[in-house]
Amino acid sequence: MNHLKRNLQFIASIFVIVIFVFLVSNYSRPEASSNNLKIYFLNVGQGDSEYIKTPSGQDILIDGGPDTSVLNELGKVMDFGDREINLVILSHPHADHLTGLLEVINRFKVDEVWETGVDYPSATYDNWRSEISAKQIPDKIVKAGESKNFGEAKISILYPLSPLENKKIDNLNNASIVNRLDYKKFSVLYMGDLEKDAQTKILSQNLFATVLKVAHHGSSNGLSEDILKVIRPAIAVIEVGKKNTYGHPAPSVINLLKQYAVRIYRTDQNGTIEITSDGEGYWVK
């Protein structure tokens, strides 16, 4: 009987140790802390969509991809039962950035929209503007110099340099919103589809960032050596569809990033990319 009792005590001790180690290891994981920023580059195929969960609990969505797949991806990364998005940013109204947002504003309570208001003849864009008006969602036309704090996190607009509301732009990619996200020492630069010729206009701004969302799905016109030298990212993310017909990402862009020892993540190869930061370090998942 004493032998059996000692065995049970030993097993119980091992069990307690295992539980303790499990709890400690999970407590120390970055995901477990409420002081962490989480950013996601959603796998929506040949398009862009990025979700941000701030340390203070706000939800931010940049673009919505080419179809309704953004809803499935948001369902995987947003808190269960969370049906509110505090800020939606439309970088520019090309369909591969806009289409999914039409479903987002119908399925979620959206507190505010930021966009450029550029003139672009498109049934999808017309529908977008009508839905925003009908739902009375505050719609802010933004330009460089504007920003908003979300607790300790901050979103800043770097481009366009001047208002584009109701203006026609020959190359709509160059009407993209460029914004940066800062949280303590960690930062992300979201380039939209801004092409190299327009990127030269922002070289004098604060572009240094930990993470670069490469412009225009890694197209050859989406990244230059000049801007890469200024940004100096540790990580580059390319949002691109599998076996796309555009040849994205361009081999020249991949080679340039490798030349500068930038770690490359691609949604066509890695799926949705999650990065967590405590404002000092970061973890890629």
Automatic annotation (TrEMBL):
<keyword id="KW-1133">Transmembrane helix</keyword>
<keyword id="KW-0812">Transmembrane</keyword>
<dbReference type="InterPro" id="IPR035681">
    <property type="entry name" value="ComA-like_MBL"/>
</dbReference>
<protein>
    <submittedName>
        <fullName>Internalization-related competence protein ComEC/Rec2 protein</fullName>
    </submittedName>
</protein>
<feature type="transmembrane region" description="Helical">
    <location>
        <begin position="7"/>
        <end position="27"/>
    </location>
</feature>
<dbReference type="InterPro" id="IPR001279">
    <property type="entry name" value="Metallo-B-lactamas"/>
</dbReference>
<feature type="domain" description="Metallo-beta-lactamase">
    <location>
        <begin position="46"/>
        <end position="242"/>
    </location>
</feature>
<dbReference type="InterPro" id="IPR036866">
    <property type="entry name" value="RibonucZ/Hydroxyglut_hydro"/>
</dbReference>
<keyword id="KW-0472">Membrane</keyword>
<dbReference type="Pfam" id="PF00753">
    <property type="entry name" value="Lactamase_B"/>
</dbReference>
<dbReference type="InterPro" id="IPR052159">
    <property type="entry name" value="Competence_DNA_uptake"/>
</dbReference>
